[in-house]
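Dear colleague,

Following up on Tuesday's group meeting, I ran the structure prediction for the two-component complex that the binding team flagged. I've pasted the input sequences exactly as they went in, so you can double-check that nothing got truncated or mislabelled along the way. The structure tokens for the whole assembly follow below. Feel free to forward this to whoever is handling the docking comparison.

Inputs:
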Amino acid sequence: MSRNFDYIRLLLHLVAALPLLYAATLIARSAAGDLSALGADPSEELMSYLGEWGLRGIIVTLAISPIQRLAPKLRLIRYRRLFGLWAFAFLCLHAALYIIVISGLNVLTLLEDILERPFIILGVLGFLLLLPLAITSTAYWKGRLGPYWRRLHRLIYLAALVGLGHFFLQVRSDYGEFVLTALVAGALLLSRFYLLKGQKW
Amino acid sequence: MLIKTSSKEDPKSSEITPEKHYLNRRAFIKSLALATASPAILAGEYKDVRAYPAPPWLRQQVLAANPWPESTDETLTPYEYASQYNNFYEFGTSKGDPYKNAQNFTTDPWSVVVEGEVGKPAQMAWEDLLRSQQLEERIYRLRCVEAWSMVVPWIGFPLRNLLKRFEPTSKARYVEFTTLYKPEVMPGQRSFFTAIDYPYIEGLRMDEAMHPLTLMVVGMYGNTLPPQNGAPLRLVVPWKYGFKSIKSIVRIRLTETMPKTTWVKTASSEYGFFANVNPEVDHPRWSQSQEKRLPSSLFQSNRIPTQPFNGYADQVASLYTGMDLRKNF
């Protein structure tokens, strides 16, 4: 290992992976018959869990730029992609669980859901907004897209809003958790009016 | 593969099982089947059912419940799932919350107010409400509006037996039910962000309430009702989505006008007053054409088609003749 090995990066990867590690313990407990882990409908519960962490991951990613501005010496901006890609990974698993287990790989069920259920339409839209960002997250694409890269990656603001909408439409009666999430995400999004003042969109 | 070779020391099978029993094996199997067809309660079919505190008179009545001949023979949902996966928002909105938060909920003493369009309004202790009611064990399908379902052996008596005692007047067209309001023990009622205006209210049309399938329930799985399942006294209307089957009832009011029920008040575009199980009419979030029969596994959703009126169409469809069930969802 070289002297310049980035231990902080390794540590942050481990921290970002914690929700998945915890999910693994939930799956193991559920498989062992522990109902308090994932309940009577484990695939549904696990899908919600992954979706919630995906949204939290996006919020963490949105927090990096303001922190960079407030505390430039931390140079946290180096790890923004790391958080963004972990959030995307959670959402890939979230979507995979929905397509494979919840819909049972049934094309008709999928089509009906995607065409008729507003919250699923928003979920698909959010995923499609994040997909090009994940693909173009490499240094190669950053170089190739030049000034357009930054502008393309502002799609994350829209994806965050769509993700909040996806969450909101699933609240049945208790808005507590949604309000908390929306307040944090909203503050981070609003901070862009200040951070990006005078910049060309 | 194991190939059994018999050695000389092994006894012959005929030495173990006398020939007359061997020849009678079919009759023997038949007698076993008959034994299990008798009340499951007496046969001790239910394993690991937790006995929550309940008055002795109720235990006696529950144990004396008769089996209902029309019970479904579908596989029962295991007790631990039916008692740990609940929608009872008074105790929290996650499915595991009611089990976590309702364990110390006191259900005795309990009384119910019966009022409105009745000849003999009264507040009655539940032992008086239940006295002289012969209980039945009825295995019903339970279909939640969230597109999952269970099969539950309830113990109760037809609601109409209760209503008749209070002599409904000719003006009684609807029945309104109210759940206990007690924020100090029901954390969901204390929530700052809840959109529900507690207490929880549900309702039925008079003919629905008087229908022989409509059950007042005091027990399940051969025992008294766990608090998270709506102890001490709840409604079960098997052809309607689960939210109609109101829990922990403290008030029954007969009215001339349609009651303003909780979910209709909370989101009238999503939940209707009738809320009959209908695979043709979807909820904005859930297709109602199929349901997940719980428990499902992590890799298999266990989806089955949903039946009109949850499979009770023969008994109840006539209540809705001439009604547009798309409008009256």
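Chain A has a mean pLDDT of 94.

Cheers,
M.
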